[in-house]
Amino acid sequence: MKKRYNSIDFLRGFTIINMIIYHLIFDLENIYGFSFPYNFFYYQQYICMSFIFISGLSLNFSRLDFKKIFVLGLSSLAITLGSYFFMRAYAIYFGIIHFFFFVNIIFYIFKNPLKKLNPYFAFFLFLALFLFFRTIYGGSLAFGLINLPAYLYEYNLFFLGLPAKTFTSGDYFPLIPWIFLFLSGFYFFSFVKVQKKEASHNIINIMGRHSLLIYLLHQEVLLLILKILLR
Fold it and tell me: Are 12 and 52 in contact (CB under 8 A)?
């Protein structure tokens, strides 16, 4: 039996479960007209931040190769085309899988100099950069303390966090600021003491080991179930 970091598989699986719950709520509200007396923005932010942070952390022990990058690229294209033709109002042009595709390419190119950085210093540096640039695609830095000039957004560099006013995406995770959170996750591995053990058969761990496949299929499954139950 292949050995795994079971605690990290569990965290990834737990995040996937919360993502499914959030998308169920999203579908009920935006497709079927349900109304919930809560703002789920922070819940959504917790999920995406956890997913990106854990993915960066996982680079310490997962193999980064062209096959993985190719699968992410193909998945990104499928998500864009599928969302455009079947849910055009929520078409995804640069979502979280697109982000993972490009950030893995960047990491692959710069992995040698990145691995030479002191991990403790780098963790806090990239975490600080993430917080500083967190609001860039809203037109500001440092949580609104610094306003960016409007002309930076005229070129629609949405992949860098500089979208034009006309740009929309049902799921949006530009390289800036999310690459900094991803890298802080990579360096956080130096803070944790985890060991490989025999792979757990816990359902949450199993989901964590197949997170990409679940991400790609869960929305279609949810919509099919809702269509059956609420028709």
Answer: no
- Rounded to the nearest 5 percent, the helix, strand and coil shares of the chain are 70, 5, 25
Residue with tokens 């390289």: 175
CA-CA distance, 97 to 115, in Å (whole number)?
24
Give the C-alpha separation, 105 to 46, whole Å: 25
198 alpha carbon, distance to own chain's centre: 27
Tell me which residue of 213, 216, 210 sits closest to 171, measured CA to CA: 216
Model pTM above 0.85: yes
Confidence of residue 1 (pLDDT cuts 50, 70, 90): low
pLDDT in tens, 87-105: 888 899 999 999 999 999 9
> What tokens appear for 23 in the block?
């998308």
